[in-house]
Amino acid sequence: PRCRLWLSDSAVMAGSLTHHSSPNPGYSTNNAVPVPVITQTESRDKWSKKMDFLLSVIGFAVDLGNVWRFPYICYQNGGGAFLIPYILMAIFGGVPLFYMELALGQFHRTGAISIWKHICPIFKGIGYAICIIALYVSFYYNTIIAWALFYFYSSFSSILPWTNCDNVWNTPDCTNYFGMDNITWTNASRSPAEEFYTRNVLEIHKSSGLRDVGGVRWQLMLCLFLIFTIVYFSLWKGVKTSGKVVWVTATLPYIVLFILLIRGATLPGAWRGVVFYLKPQWGKLLETSVWVDAAAQIFFSLGPGFGVLLALSSYNSFTNNCYRDAIVTSLVNCLTSFVSGFVIFTVLGYMAEMRQVEVEDVARDKGPSLLFITYPEAIANMMGSTFFAIIFFVMMITLGLDSTFGGLEAIITAVLDEYPDQFYHRRELFVLCLVVVCFLGSLSTLTNGGAYVVKLLEEFGVGSSIIAVGFLEAIAVSWFYGIHRFSNDVQAMLGKAPGLFWKVCWVAISPAFLAYIIVSSLLKAPPLALFDYKYPDWSIIVGYIVGLSSFIWVPIYMVYKLVWTPGSLKQVGGCVQSPETVSDAFSSNLTSASFARVPCFPQRLAVCLRPERTIPDIHAENLNMATVP
Description:
There is one protein chain. The chain has about 625 residues and is mainly alpha-helical. The chain has 24 helices and 8 strands. A hairpin with a 2-residue loop joins β3 (about 530) and β4. The two termini are about 15 Å apart.
């Protein structure tokens, strides 16, 4: 239950825990009246240990993209030279947004939907958009984990099935060059690993494209069912269970990465891959696309805007040092991406040595193909191939599961906090229903042409939509909620206000960073293709509709809020203050007479912009409050 409390004029808290006028437009600010505020008194779950939280955040941020996307983007955009724009974008864009979300979630202790009534109610549509985007991610991301599980099962063999061309799914184009002399590799040649992936795992040759995706692959459906079963029993009891699971799923990938790094470094030709990975091409820094790729990579890698950081940090204690958490987890994330590049490119150098071609010719695969074709192919021809295949796909499964935990927890926390009466005591049932919805929504990605659907959802279901949502979130917090108030929130938690650097980043640099990505991605959208299939124009239109279907809830809710909020859009009566000026007035401990000098907004718009305040439990006892029945 939530208790309504009255805060007297003399009860002014340090920092931003001072509160503004009532949302009731009938109150007159020229008279000394009680100011209603809300305090959270419900028993909210908390992390059992600090490491449970850190591992959950690291597990969410470090995902499959760190292993496949960063190495490819790095060598494509100038090798070692790419690290300069990457680091700059991280410092001025990614990390400030990451820190902002952790602080917001920890202070307000609520999910991505209900948090907006405490920040700027008219932007509540952002919370709904985040949940829809998280659903779209679950529709395709878990299918990629299911592919990894299929490979994991197939790895329990003395001879890995993608080692040779003697299988029923192979074609005459299958060319096995490992351990053989006088093998000519042509453009039509296909490796055993590529045919295993395309013709046995996906069976994509049975689909002509998005118009005919074929039937559902029952083997992949079984794998996906097992994945969602693990997900359900990890999330059904909340952070008490998921916080324990991440001790395995978040740490195991680092053990495997270290083993694979050592093994890769001992392979013949490994140095060729490392040189290709890091050799700087300074001229690339003059290309705009390099900076766009750096900005997009750090944003999607750290994951602000997805609502996950809000959800996970909302289970922290109020005085937890979220600043240190943001720095540590961001560093771990970026270093993991960098080290993953060595793991991948030592193996690519080895393959180039075996094929007697340039590393560039081997490294053309990107995205899932890098993990499901190129790397398994190299593993298959190592000593102890079965062992390395098993641990590699275990790493992929655990990397994916962590991110799935975070994405679904964002939805669960958001909905349970917004509708506590309906779902708070039915968490297990709600999580079950959510997992079933995600499973059913994933069925189209399990068909013969499911890889085409995965690519479409990845590009349009998330893509520009989540960046636009992140942009609006940064604007709403920094400009409407107010950087002064937000800084006071941080000071109330940490005992120290953020420095000038963070304030400048939150107000100007980070929003500009996101706007830059949005504009660049819309102006220079590359043609969409997968393998030899080029996506038709109608599918691109469908993709944009999918992307718009999540973001559209932001303006829809704005209109709804303005229409249904009492008051006039023209009349300025009652001198209703803007959010920032009210915060300034209270933090300066001004008298009620001082409010006459504060500029006013139209009543209805002001109510839509003005946040309710939440007094955290830890500080409730320090306030001069009387409970109102």
